[in-house]
Specification:
The structure is a homodimer. By secondary structure, the first copy, chain A, is mostly helical. Among the domains of chain A are: 159 residues, no CATH class; 132 residues, no CATH class. The first copy, chain A, contains 19 helices and three strands. Chain A has a three-stranded mixed sheet, with helices on both faces. In chain A, α4 packs across α6, α5 runs antiparallel to α6 and α11 crosses α16. The termini of chain A are far apart. In chain A, 43% of the residues are buried. The N terminus of chain A is likely disordered. At the A-B interface, α1, α2 and α5 of A face α1, α2 and α5 of B. Chains A, B: This is Metal-dependent carboxypeptidase. Chains A, B: Broad specificity carboxypetidase that releases amino acids sequentially from the C-terminus, including neutral, aromatic, polar and basic residues. Chains A, B: InterPro entries: Peptidase_M32_Taq.
Chain lengths: 510, 510
């Protein structure tokens, strides 16, 4: 029963000043609440739900998605949007304008794809994910080739329908799904330039690292005790347990919404830092969600902008903040207090552990220097697959060749090659680039925040000041502008690689 | 995305053979899935949700409820129902007929109450529950009197609107909310007769109990170890952990739906049997939900019939089955194995513990003999409050007088008097009777099931045979008939007190 929390998510008075605007706000509030519910159910599915309930939960989520879709494609929606724009023309409010823009975008996308294409894609993806699990477990790429071909065909048709409605290319339509407005024409040159730089500096980084004292591997710690440390770290970074939870799951993720944000991690008894860094990462995602403007919580303009800025916030916490002296000193003291003094828990060693560079086969284990090369490879190959320039049967070979070329490693089997990620079999083409773009944005934002602190006569960057800056410039901006607009306003420039390159040199070569 | 679990919840082919029938089935499938989602969210709210998310969750649940309401009051619903009845007239299928009947009932109720009355009731209840928590904590009835008056006024208006639409009395409209078709004219004479019997036999029961060897109180057991025993007991009784969970919560409850049923309990280190009996109780609720017909899962006819049969199944497990020699022998062995041999864990002592009769002040701690007197008191007083025959200010006195009269106990304070239950401040008038009616139904059903087993040449009743009988005669019947119809078909008689009276004599006076 409501009447209670209404206020927290209510738009500022006067934002939608007219009957059409108010009607639209009510419809999109319903959509927002359905999404919030879906996110709780998604969390439950991966953390709490009994295994036998998978099909039931699938039906429930499909129904909720359909209900959102039904609202967006209602026949009177176009007229309502026109009328609301008319109402708002007299005294335009920038947030309400952004809200109307996002509403139009959502309606355009919902109306773009015939339902038979959606069903075909959902079916292909369900089969693709199932085939991937088996193929990966048995290291049999051939078992996934057919299902992956079907996924690519379905994604192609779906993306073409989106592209036609938006007047853009197929790949741009896919990029737009994960970060509205992202364009291949901007991204690809950025990636190529970045790869050149990395390949140029990597040998020297490895040389210097070999000559420096090696990091001391931490002792094993029982996972239950790691969980306490993880909770303390999340709280230290600003995670609010009155409005959130931390649980364990197979793969770390963040779900929930502003007011109820839930993060997960996994613990490895033999490698205590991996669980802690994963918690720092998810805490970054959580702080973004928790920092969205409460007044716009239930409207499109109040949503997180996209995967680029989301990933920027998680990487900011995991990489930039976890290297700050203030954070490392606190963590060193906390871990030594919990687990007993040990050389591994010194701040200097924690920094060394967080800065090791090791060219390897597995993307999720990669360091920040080599990670962009993993993404470049995937971006190239997924474009080729979609364009039909690369046959699915030739994927393992192309993967191995390019890994060797970019990272100098030999791919011993497909499990450690093109079977390692679930993204393609689950239809997520266009997603990979956001990882590297997020890493670039993280550094660009950190540099600007730290520069602001310094310019204001402050001392060295501290995590609280940096995060408060992110709250004002990124979290609070929500979807009031596009990604480049938010970055431009916050840092004075659109997304670029200059700050990242400076960071690599400063961190690894000085 | 769906296409996967669809089959499990699909109606038998041909059940709704016509366009109107199929359209209705689709609308009510959506309603069913929303309810399933609400039940998961309700579980989450009480077991997992961070405290600060209460208002947000309230908004989400209110939105989902409104979406269900919107479907039920759609302007074309009456025409669709008429058309579907026409389609079904040629070859009537009893389940589909029941489904249409339930659909009509839901639409009638949804359309009966103007939304301002619903809002007024929701507001009064929110304030009433809050006032109750404070009043109970401080033992200050006066702090709850005003809010309770407001709840009663709101419930009265709401019930009158329902009563007008259904052509019944105000109290019958309330009873009907918890058990469709329940009538005061049937219930009240049953309660009076039962109270006479109980008050007549109670002195002799207490006398015999005083003369018999007392039950040995079990030793304290850490709650974590109790949880393992609780899990084992639930599984022994047939709870399927592949499709369900057992967690801890402040008050035990059952939520979720067929395919994903979730029960909770609370543990008391000093009283290990209380948590175990609560688990047996909730397992009974869970087995009912899990035993509903899968093919009708997403339709009104597939829902549990009402609170009377629901409570009958929980009490059957907690009381009837937990006294069967086969169950007690298993439990005695299991507990001794887990916690070490002790006189308290003998089957005979467990039976004695489960059969103690102690007239007391608190309903939720009452034994099965005195429990109906607690309910009689509440039923009388809630009718008087609703009718205006009892002023709220006079409630504490009336409560104390009647407790003394019925149970011979003196009420020392309102916390142990009329402040002990949340039902009235939360607007649940008409709910209390289902507890006693459920207890009568439990014994009536158990007697019939055991009789069937005996008549078939079987040995003494065993829990698996009894539960299989319940599955066929109660769980599987879902809402295909009303409560009395299901009891008539299962036991040969509508709900009555004869079996219960026989049970009391056989258990406590022979």
């Amino acid at each position: 029963m409501s009447g209670t929390g209404q206020e927290a998510g209510a738009m500022p008075p006067g934002a939608a000043d007219g009957p059409a605007g108010r009607a639209l706000a009510a419809r999109f509030r319903r959509i927002a609440r359905l999404r919030q519910v879906e996110r709780v159910l998604g969390w439950d599915q991966r953390v709490m739900m009994p295994a036998g309930a998978a099909a039931l939960r699938g039906d429930q989520l499909a129904e909720l998605e359909l209900m959102r879709q039904d609202i967006l494609v209602a026949p009177d929606m176009a007229d309502l949007l026109d009328a609301a724009e008319g109402e708002a023309a007299a005294a335009p409010d920038p947030w309400w304008q952004a809200n109307l823009r996002e509403m139009r975008r959502m309606c355009r996308q919902a109306g773009a794809v015939p339902s038979d294409l959606l069903v075909a894609k959902a079916r292909a993806v369900a089969a693709g994910e199932m085939a991937w699990r088996a193929a990966r477990a048995e290291d049999r790429f051939d078992a996934m080739a057919g299902p992956l071909r079907a996924v690519i065909d379905a994604v192609r048709d779906w993306a073409d329908a989106l592209a036609a409605a938006q007047g853009c290319s197929r790949y741009d339509a896919l990029l737009d799904q994960y970060d509205p407005g992202a364009k291949a024409a901007t991204i690809l040159p950025l990636f190529a330039d970045l790869a050149d730089t990395i390949r140029q500096v990597l040998p020297e980084i490895l040389e210097r690292q070999a000559a420096a004292p090696p990091a001391v591997q931490p002792p094993a710690v029982p996972t239950a005790r790691q969980a306490d440390a993880a909770r303390a770290l999340a709280a230290f970074l600003g995670f609010d347990f009155r409005h959130g939870r931390l649980d364990e799951s197979l793969h770390p993720f963040t779900s929930g919404s502003l007011g109820d944000v839930r993060i997960t991690t996994r613990f490895d008894a033999g490698d205590p830092m991996s669980g802690l860094l994963a918690v720092a990462h998810e805490t970054g995602h959580a702080l973004y969600e928790a920092g969205l403007p409460a007044a716009w919580r239930d409207q499109p303009a109040g949503r997180a902008r996209g995967m680029i800025l989301h990933e920027s916030q998680s990487l900011l916490c995991e990489r930039q903040l976890m290297r700050l002296p203030g954070v490392l000193d606190w963590l060193a003291g906390d871990l030594a207090g919990r687990f007993g003094a040990a050389p591994a828990w010194s701040a200097a060693n924690l920094r060394r552990l967080a800065s090791r560079v090791i060219p390897g086969l597995i993307r999720v284990e990669a360091d920040e220097v080599t990670y962009p090369l993993h993404i470049l490879l995937r971006t190239e190959l997924e474009q080729a697959l979609l364009a039909g320039d690369l046959a699915v049967d030739d994927l393992p070979g192309a993967w191995a060749d390019r890994m060797h070329d970019l990272l100098g490693v030999s791919v011993p089997d497909d499990r450690r090659g093109c079977l390692q990620d679930i993204h393609w079999p689950s239809g997520a083409f266009g997603y990979f680039p956001t990882y590297t773009l997020g890493a670039l944005a993280a550094v660009q934002l950190f540099e600007a925040a730290a520069g602001t602190q310094k310019a204001a006569g402050g001392a060295d960057a501290d995590h609280e000041t940096i995060l408060a800056w992110m709250g004002r410039n990124v979290h609070g901006a929500a979807s009031s502008a596009d990604t480049d607009g938010i970055l431009q306003a916050a840092t004075g420039a659109p997304l670029g690689s200059a700050a990242f390159k400076r960071h690599i040199r400063a961190t690894y070569l000085t």
